[in-house]
Structure formats: C-alpha cells, structure tokens
Amino acid sequence: MTQRLVSHLRYAALAVPNFEQERDFFVRHWGLTEVESADGLSYLAAEGSDEPFILRLRKDDKRIDLAGFGVRNRADVDALAAKLHADHVQFVHEPQALTGYSGGYGFRVFDGDGRVLEFATGYQQRQARKIREREPIPAKLSHMVFNSANLNDTVRWYVDHLDFTISDSLITPTGEDMMHFMRCNPNHHSIAIARGPHHALHHLSFEMRGIEEWMRGSGKILRSGARMVWGPGRHNAGDNTFAYFLDPAGNTIEYTTELAMVDDDSWVANRHDISHLSTQDQWGTAAEMSELVARESFNDIDKGLFVAPPV
Known about the structure:
Number of domains: 2
CATH architecture of the largest domain: Roll
Number of strands: 17
Structural class: alpha/beta
Strand order of the largest sheet: 14-15-16-13-9-12-11-10-17
Mean pLDDT: 96
Number of helices: 6
Largest sheet: 9 strands, mixed
Shape: globular
C-alpha cells in the first residue's frame, strides 16, 4: 500500500456573499451542525465525523477560500513542507501553530491553478456519533471537485507534488480527457478535477449513512425548495450514488453514499466514455447528462486565485 504524506480531505472553506442564507440552508436543511461562529464566519460539522468541522463559510465575494487536508503527525507536516519547498511550490505560510477554530499545526500553499490548500495535524477533534437508521443528515465530507481550464496540468500538479493517484477518468468518445478522480487513501477519490471553461468549484459531496438515508435526504432537500440539478442515480467511476443540488449561492452540492474503496496494489484505473449511459448513471434513473446540466457545475469564475483568504 502506498504511504502518502497527505492522509485525507478534512474540510472545504467557501466565501459567499449571502452568508446568513447559506448558513441557514446548511444547518436547517442540509443537516450540518454549527460548532463555532463569529461575525461573518461559521464552522459546520457533520455528526458522523470526528473532524472538528467539514465546511467553513465566510461572508465575502464568492470564491473557494481553501481545501483543508489532514496529515498524520508533525514530522509528516514538516516533510511535506520540505518537499513542496524543494518543488518550488508557492507558500501562503510556513508550518506553524494554527490559530483558527480547533487549532493544530500546519501550513498553506497555492496549487497550480492558485487555489489555497491547507495541510494540518494535531487539531482538536470532536466526538462523532453513529448516524441513526433513516436519519437524513451527512455523516462526513466525501470529496471536493474543482473545475480547471488546465485539466491535465492541474492533475499532474497533484500527482507530482502531493502523490495523489488517478483512480479513474472520464473521456469523450474521441479519447479527450474530461475528468480525473484522484485518491490519497483507499477512498476512490477525495478530489476530482474536471475540464471547465475557467477555474471554479465544480461541487462538494457529502457522504450519507446508506441508500435509505441518501434517498430520504434527497427528498428532504427537494422539499426545502432547492433545485435538483442531476439525479438520483449511480455513477460508474467510484460506484457511488449521486443527487446534485444548487445551494443558495449557486454552488453545486451532492448527497452521495457507498463510494468505492480501492487497493493501491491491485486497482487498475479505467477510462470511461461519457457517451455511454452506464458511465453517467448505472441505474438509468437520472436524466441523461446534457450541456445544460454540465453548465450548472461550471459555476462562477473563482475570484480567489493566488489570493490568500484573510482567515
């Protein structure tokens, strides 16, 4: 099994202009728990996760503030920082005590497209609980997907600098790359990079306890008035279920479950043709992927590239 310095995806941090509306949606409808708040800043946890929070919201112009990743210990944080320095990666700040909610020790860098990434260890964890049968709330953050106008260059950045591995890819009928699913642990993907017209958030995905909770959660969100963009269905790459919605800020967010687990020593990456209906949806229950559906996840141009968030 490959030993990587990055252990897992911890949280996503977004800036949104409609902060109060966004926070209300994620707490009242989506099923997250607010664990800390300040003026224009909210930290939201998942009841099934021991991460102190899985989503941070900040009041500002719409952007991805950062993606937070876990590292096993301080030695690995320092080793990863040294590797990225040797690779001439641009740092936001060096390894240090983190002063934000839950603390820890870590550092931040810009990825190849200019998104901010944080790598941390030693932060205060929270007490997770088992999600009850039929309880329609997220258990944890599953994965984060970025749009990139430089698809393969961006993927290469994560492979070369962070030792991520491509699990599967989506391609056009002519063999052109459309999306790469990437892992840093046995989960089929913790991030994915999609080809887009500009750099932006493609979607955030939240893991449910199981199929029953995923379906009940999807119905709950529909009743909230949020629009379902695509679903319900089951992807081929990752073998996970999907139901995509738009949050009040216009970001695509997903309820999913049963994401595949893979073994580094035996897994063979596949290249799935997006023109095959089974690639899009094994069950055939979701509407066929179209240009209109795809456009929803192009999102607005990210205004935060190579600009570190204030917190």
